[in-house]
């Protein structure tokens, strides 16, 4: 029993050494890129902050319908479909379509709301990765293509994913992958 305990201890020490070196590599990668993103965290209300592409901060996108992408500090990516217009469309999902006709569609949003500001109707619906009908993965795989976005609701509405929004998606997607791997390494370290 003592020998087995000693073997287990040595294995865990090797694992910790490996995980520490991997964490250091990933942390260096993160430090090199995180300055390219806007970081939002309200210390009063949030334990975990969010990174988003600077082109997609709300202040730069008033009165515009678009898909907004962000990732939290643990690498959980999410997408918000934002609609702004003269009348409500009461959208609950989105479908994204590539030029070849292939598409992905979100299920009905679990988190959505509508409001009016100076006569302009605004609607937002949030989708977390893994609960988004693979829309974010589809967009990443088609990030260099012209993508049509259909808002699915009571009234039809469509737009296109601009080149800037496609660039934001790709950057946030890759950052989410990096943050997720750092979180996984930290979990494995704690277990070891």
Structure overview:
The chain is of the alpha+beta class and 192 residues long. It contains 3 helices and 10 strands. It has helices at residues 2-33, 135-141, 163-191, and strands at residues 38-40, 50-52, 66-72, 77-85, 93-97, 103-105, 111-117, 120-128, 147-152, 157-161. A hairpin with a 4-residue loop joins strand 9 (147-152) and strand 10. The longest helix has 32 residues, at 2-33. The relative contact order is 0.18. The model has no long low-confidence stretch (mean pLDDT 93).
Proportion of residues in β-strands: 25-35%
| Uncertain residue ranges | none
Cα-atom radius of gyration: 20 Å
Biggest sheet architecture: 6 strands, antiparallel
- Number of strand elements: 10
Gross morphology is elongated
């Amino acid at each position: 029993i003592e020998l087995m305990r000693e073997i287990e201890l040595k294995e865990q020490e090797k694992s910790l050494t490996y995980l520490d070196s991997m964490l250091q590599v990933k942390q260096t990668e993160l430090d090199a890129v995180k300055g390219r993103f806007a970081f939002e965290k309200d210390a009063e209300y949030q334990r975990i902050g969010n990174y988003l592409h600077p082109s997609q901060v709300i202040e730069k996108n008033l009165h515009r319908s678009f898909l907004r992408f962000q990732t939290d500090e643990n690498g959980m990516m999410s997408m918000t479909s934002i609609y702004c217009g003269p009348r409500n469309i009461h959208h609950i999902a989105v479908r994204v379509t590539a030029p070849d006709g292939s598409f992905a569609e979100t299920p009905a949003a679990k988190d959505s709301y509508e409001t009016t500001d100076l006569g302009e109707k605004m609607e937002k619906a949030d989708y977390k990765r893994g609960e988004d009908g693979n829309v974010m993965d589809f967009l990443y795989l088609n990030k260099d293509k012209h993508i049509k976005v259909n808002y699915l609701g009571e009234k039809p509405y469509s737009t296109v994913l601009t080149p800037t929004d496609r660039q934001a998606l790709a950057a946030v997607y890759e950052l989410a992958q990096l943050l997720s791997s750092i979180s996984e390494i930290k979990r494995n370290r704690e277990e070891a």
